[in-house]
């Protein structure tokens, strides 16, 4: 809750924003501009995501003002982006580029990223490095003004749509594993990059294996210093957890709990006292999670995401799975039917598809973006200050580690 003074400040900002949007619309009438031109102009005017910094598609305003901007634009039928097309670009690549990229890199990539002309993917996980991400083996070797990349990534969501990839690669095998990593932006449309679909339990193939065979990355696409990859990767991961756990304001009973309550209202004949007790408990947990995520978003307006985002993501995953489990039980024999096993290559999971899909897809929630076990470790160490996990390999060069 905002106190009186803060609420008055917020109202002033809202009024200023409305005025700015109206002035922008007067200068850029949506009916007279091509969609892409309108979106480009919107980004340049700081009316992309209002919480992005000035000069980067935003105005440095609280995230809570984004719906005000969107309502003003929708009222005149102005085009908007479909953020679901570029979840990794918007949720992870943009904050990473804003925090760690050079001015040239920001100018090159941020606008087409925000307008979703260029889709992004995240090339972190490997067959031998997921939770232990710093153990990754994909090598980048310098060659003139380029780096030559060879290795394999896995579980790469959207690689089949991506123009650019956020790549974490090993540039020095002779130092302890965290110190030998460098962060790049790699062009996914080049020889030496092969993307193969991986089909998941839902029948879809949201993600892929990606093979690099002497693919090239110009040094100009390196984000931050050589050896600084771990630091930059952490900026991406903190934003990923916030993006998964609490990215946007949701209304009461929106999201997976909304599917459950709708089913409850629609089918009185399926109700039992036991299912009612479970639903009430889930409803209360969903509401606590929603309000906690709102508080986190307000804290974020004032700074970078910290380890607290891990808690939001942990809660989101457990809750989604429990709600999806309740729905399957509530639907009885019907709940065991699955709608369609066709392999799709969707860019975003459509949770509205049905309870069977939700049950299977939410299983991935406690793995993607860091497993629940790893998030508990982060919360224990960095939020609660408990003793860290013993790490025997801390000072050993990566190449000397057993694999
Ligand atoms: C839907 C989906 C989308 C994904 N998209 C991407 C993507 O776009 N890009 C990308 O790079 N990756 C992506 N991933 C991969 C994801 O980040 C990894 O799967 C995850 O980090 C876990 O790594 P792993 O699969 O290698 O499991 P492992 O690290 O091998 O873990 C196996 C099990 O051991 C547990 N464990 C491991 N270490 C510890 C420890 N220290 N303490 C306690 N328990 C531990 C884990 O919690 C887990 O239960 C995606 C995954 C999913 C499910």
Account of the protein in words:
This protein has helices spanning 4-27, 35-44, 66-75, 87-100, 103-114, 229-246, 256-266, 273-300, 308-330, 355-361, 372-383; strands spanning 120-123, 139-143, 146-154, 164-170, 181-187, 193-198, 207-218, 222-223. The chain starts with a helix and ends in a 20-residue tail after the last helix. The strands form two sheets. The chain has a four-stranded mixed β-sheet with strand order 1-4-5-8. Strands 2-3-7-6 form a four-stranded antiparallel β-sheet, with no helix packed on it. The protein has eleven helices and eight strands. With 403 residues, the protein is of the alpha+beta class. It is 42% helix and 13% strand.
Distance between the termini: 51 Å
Q: Report strand order across the widest sheet.
A: 1-4-5-8
The helix/strand series, from N terminus to C terminus, equals: HHHHHEEEEEEEEHHHHHH
What is the residue-averaged pLDDT?
A: 91
The secondary-structure class comes to: alpha+beta
Largest sheet composition = 4 strands, mixed
Total E-strand runs: 8
Radius of gyration: 22 Å
Strand portion: 5-15%
User: Poorly predicted ranges (pLDDT <50, ≥5 residues)?
Assistant: none
What ions, cofactors and ligands are bound? flavin-adenine dinucleotide
Key traits:
403 residues, alpha+beta, 11 helices, 8 strands, binds flavin-adenine dinucleotide
Helix-strand blueprint:
Elements: H1 4-27, H2 35-44, H3 66-75, H4 87-100, H5 103-114, E1 120-123, E2 139-143, E3 146-154, E4 164-170, E5 181-187, E6 193-198, E7 207-218, E8 222-223, H6 229-246, H7 256-266, H8 273-300, H9 308-330, H10 355-361, H11 372-383
Parallel strand pairs: 1-4
Antiparallel strand pairs: 2-3, 3-7, 4-5, 5-8, 6-7
Helix pairs in contact: 1-3, 4-5, 4-6, 6-9, 7-9, 8-9, 9-10, 9-11
The structure holds flavin-adenine dinucleotide.
């Amino acid at each position: 809750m905002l106190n009186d003074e803060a609420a008055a400040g917020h109202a002033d900002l809202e009024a200023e924003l409305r005025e700015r949007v109206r002035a922008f619309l007067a200068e850029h009438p949506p009916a007279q501009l091509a969609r892409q031109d309108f979106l480009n102009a919107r980004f340049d005017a700081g009316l992309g995501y209002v919480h992005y910094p000035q000069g980067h598609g935003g105005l440095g305003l609280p995230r809570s003002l984004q719906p005000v901007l969107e309502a003003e634009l929708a009222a005149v039928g102005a085009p908007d982006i479909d953020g679901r097309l570029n979840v990794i670009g918007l949720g992870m690549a943009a904050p990473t580029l804003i925090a760690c990229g050079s001015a040239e890199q920001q100018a090159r990539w941020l606008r087409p990223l925000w307008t979703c002309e260029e889709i992004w993917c995240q090339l972190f996980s490997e067959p031998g490095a997921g939770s232990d991400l710093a153990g990754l083996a994909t090598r980048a070797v310098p060659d003139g003004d380029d780096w030559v990349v060879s290795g394999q990534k896995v579980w790469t969501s959207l690689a089949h749509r991506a123009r650019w990839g956020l790549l974490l690669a090993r540039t020095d095998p002779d130092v302890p594993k965290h110190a030998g990593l460098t962060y790049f932006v790699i062009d996914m449309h080049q020889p030496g990059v092969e993307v193969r679909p991986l089909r998941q339990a839902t029948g879809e193939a949201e993600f892929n294996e990606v093979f690099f065979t002497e693919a090239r990355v110009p040094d100009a696409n390196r984000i931050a210093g050589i050896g600084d990859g771990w630091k930059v990767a952490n900026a991406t991961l903190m934003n990923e957890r916030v993006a998964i756990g609490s990215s946007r304001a949701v209304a009461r009973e929106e999201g997976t709990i909304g599917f459950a309550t709708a089913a409850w209202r629609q089918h009185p004949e399926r109700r039992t006292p036991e299912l009612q007790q479970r639903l009430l408990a889930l409803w209360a947990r969903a509401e606590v999670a929603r309000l906690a995520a709102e508080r986190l978003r307000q804290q974020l307006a004032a700074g970078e995401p910290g380890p607290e985002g891990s808690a939001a993501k942990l809660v989101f995953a457990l809750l989604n799975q429990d709600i999806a489990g309740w729905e399957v039980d509530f639907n009885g024999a019907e709940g065991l039917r699955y709608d369609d096993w066709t392999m799709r290559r969707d860019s975003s999971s459509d949770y509205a598809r049905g309870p069977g899909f939700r049950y299977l897809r939410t299983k991935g929630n406690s793995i993607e973006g860091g497993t629940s076990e790893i998030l508990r470790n982060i919360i224990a160490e960095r939020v609660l200050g408990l003793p860290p996990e013993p790490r025997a390999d801390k000072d050993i060069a990566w190449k000397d580690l057993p694999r």
